[in-house]
Hints:
By secondary structure, the protein is of the alpha/beta class. Helices cover about 40% and strands about 20% of the residues.
Amino acid sequence: MERIPAVAGRFYPGSPSALSRAVGGITREVAEKLPAIAVVSPHAGYVYSGAVAGEIFSSVRVPGRSVIFCPNHSGAGDPAAIVSSGTWKMPWGSVPVDEELAVRIRAATPLLHEDAQAHAREHSLEVQLPFLHRFRPDFRFVPVCLAQLSLEECRQLGEAAADAVRGEREPPLLVASSDMSHYVSEAEARRKDGLAIDRMLALDPEGLYGTVRAEKISMCGVIPATVVLFAAKRLGATHARLVKYATSGEVSRDFDQVVGYAGLAFL
Length: 267
């Protein structure tokens, strides 16, 4: 079964040539790539968050396989939804789901359920694919869409995913798709996002989960980021790096209502 693009022509250009030019303009060749276990990457329209996403994917080694954890903005489908087969149609062609890896991850935890409905209209995973294609045209991936999970469920899912990918000759890149604060002032976004970023830089998934809730930070992908942090720690991550932070105000010039974007690598 092939998933049809939900936001091609809106969040990113819908034609192969225009998309290639757009992604080429917000990525670069970096000689010394970071050996990242996992990354956090934003998912707004490329005009706003593309420079941050482009920099994080430019900065890390992109392997042949990725596991992408995204938030469920619509609430459709299962709260922990994986798709284990088929392809995702994109402007340049069809991207295959890595069936072997998906089945292995799904078997590692009872939290995950096969559910294409949760993914059908979700943009936050789809917008990551052109960046992976830019640096690894033959990539395969595993899509996981997450709604509200408890901290213990985040731990269980992250550690199960880590155990499922451990020992690979070329370990897959784990990707958490998340924007940061939504529709607050520039000053408030930078202050609140700084609190969440500090917890990620400290490799502190419990702290991230608790801080976002205690400070009421509208970080839509806190669940994917928490899951990926647990996974990265189990896989041996010892430090993190903030590659780039920006807000929509830098593009729109509206600093009263901004969205924050952060690109981080866990190594």
